[in-house]
Amino acid sequence: MRIKGGFMGATRRLLADRSANFAVMTALCTPVALALTAFAVDEGALYNERRAAQSIVDIAAITAANNISNAQQAVLTALSDNGINSVAVQQSGTTIAPTATKAVVQVTPGRYTGLTTVATGSRFQAGQLPYNAVQVSLKKQGTLYFAASMMSPPTIGTSAIASAQPQAAFSVGSRLASLNGGILNALLGGLLGGNISLSVMDYNSLISADIDVLSFTDALATQLHLTGVSYNDVLASKATVGQIATAMANVPGLGNTAKVALQTMASSATNTVKIPLSTLVDLGSVGNLGIGQKPPGLTVAASALSMLTAAAGLANGTNQVAVNLGATIPGLLSTTVSIAIGEPPQSTPWLAVGELGTVVRTAQTRIKINASVGLGNSNLGGGISLLAVNLPLNIEIAYAEAKLTDITCPTGPSSIQVTIAAQPGVVAAHLANSNATGFADFTKPQSFSDAEIADVSLKLLLINLSLIQINGSSYFNITNMTPTNLTFNATDIANKAIKTVSTKNLTQSLTTSLVNNLSLTVTALGLGIDLTALLGTVKPAVVTVLDGVTAPVDSLVYNLLGALGVRVGEADVRVTGATCGRSVLVQ
Predict the structure, then answer these.
(1) Any idea what DSSP says for residue 412?
(2) pLDDT per residue over 397-448, tens digit each?
(3) DSSP assignment letter at 532
(4) By the 8 A CB rule, do 402 and 573 touch?
(5) What is the distance between the alpha carbons of residues 458 and 480, in angstroms, rounded to a whole number?
(6) Stated pTM of the model
(7) What is residue 565's DSSP assignment?
(8) How far is the C-alpha of 307 from the C-alpha of 174, rounded, in Å?
(9) Strands 401-408 and 448-449
(10) Strand 87-89 to strand 103-112: parallel, antiparallel, or no bridges (unpaired)?
C-alpha cells in the first residue's frame, strides 16, 4: 500500500504531530534538573554550614576575649563544646590546609580600639600590647552531599573579633596614718594660699570620707556651668582648688563634718591658679559617658583629703611653699619648713580608671627643714659648753609609680583579681646646707655643703673662745629600681584596702640614720688653732641632743609627706573598683 504523499509527506506529518512531546522533553531535561537540584541542595547546605561555623567562631572569640591570658585553650574548649573536636592550631606565619577530618583554627590576641576616627579595618592591631581583644579564624572543609563525585569540597572560612575591656580605678599615695592638725593647717594654708584652722577630727573625717569621683565631676560640671557634656569634657576644663573643694562638698552622701571642713577650705583658699583637671583624674573610657551616667560594676572613689591635697599640690606647680612652725615641735626651739612640689610626669594623673598598662604617679617632692634644737644641760665639762645645735634636714623623693598589669575573673566577678606593679620613689636625705636658688628647680640636682651643726664655747686658763663652729654633713638614701606586684581581690577592692610597697625595711628612723652617719669638723673663727681634739667630747654630746629629737622630727616629716600623698621609701596603692568587662563581638 502506497503511503499518501510519499516519504516527505510522512516526515511533515511526524513533525507536525505534538502528541507525547512533554514526555520526550522530560526525559531529556530530567538529568539536567536533577544535577541542578543537587547543586542547589549542596549550596544551601554549605550556606547553613557556614552560618553554623560563624556562630561557633563568634562564641569562641567571645570566650577567648573573656580569658585573654589563656585564649587558645578557651577557643579549643569552645569549639569542642560545639561539636568541632578535631582541630589543628595554625601559628602566626604558617599555613595549614584543613582536611575532611580536621579543621584549622588560628587564635590571634591583640588590641582593639573603638574610636570612630580609626578606619574599621585598622581598629584591631594583632599582637599589640596590652591585649584587650582576640581574633579567631576557622577553616574547615564543607560537606557535599551530591556533588562530591564531581568536585572537591570547598573550604569554609570564618573569622570573628571579640573585645573585652577590663578596667580598674586605682590611685597611688592615698594614706595618712598619723595626724598633726597644726602641721596640716600650716601646710594646707601655704598650698591653698589662705589661713586654715581645722581640728584633727576634721582631718580624720576627710581621710575617712570617700568621694565618688563621678558625682564630684557632676558637681564640678554644675559649678563650671557645663551642660550636655561628657565626663571627659568636664575634665578637659580647668578649675581652682577652691572650686574643687566646693564641688567635693556638694557630693551626695558626704558626712556633715567632712562637708563643713571642705566648705571651710574652699572659702579660705585664695590660690587662683587653675589646674587642668585631667592632671588630677583620668577616667579612661568611662569618661565618654554623659554626665550623670554610671558604669555598671565600677566604683571610682578617692579619699577627700588625698584628692584635695593632690589638687593643691598641682595648683602650687613648682613654686616654693614656706611654713614657719615656730616652737610647736617638741624638743625644737624653732622650725621652718620649705616645700617644693614638682609637676607629675605627663599623662600620669594621681587617680585613673583604665585598662591594662595604665599608669599613675605621685609628684616629685622636696622638703627642707631648718630647726634649732633645745639643749638641756649645755655644760660638757672641761670648760666646754654647747651654745646651739641645729638640724638642717633636706629630703627629696622622686615620684612613686603604680601600673595596672592584670585583671582576671576566673569564675566571675566575685573572683576578680587586680594586679598593680608598684615602685616607690627613690629617697635621698641630707643633713647639710642646700643651695637655696635651685630648691624648686626639679630639672637640676641640688647641691649640698657642710652645715653649721653646733656652736661651742671653750674656757681654759688663759683662753676664752666664745664661738667655735662645729660643721658637718650626712647623707642617706633608699632606693628600689624593681617594681613589686600587689594583688587586690574582690574583698580588698570592696574595702578599698591600701597596700604598700617599701624600698627596704628601715631598721631605724630616717633622722637617726642621718645622725649616725654624721661627719663633723671644727672651726675656730678667726683663729688658726687646731681644735680637732674637741670633737671627741663634742660629737657624742651633739649626737645625743639630736637623738632626742629624732622621733618628733620623723613625725613632722611623715605628716608633711603624708599630706602630700608621698611617703619615705614607700608607695601606697588603693584599688576602689574593677570590672572584667563584658566580652562583645566587634568585627
Answers:
(1) B
(2) 888 888 988 887 767 778 888 999 998 888 888 889 887 677 878 778 888 8
(3) G
(4) yes
(5) 46
(6) 0.72
(7) T
(8) 8
(9) unpaired
(10) parallel
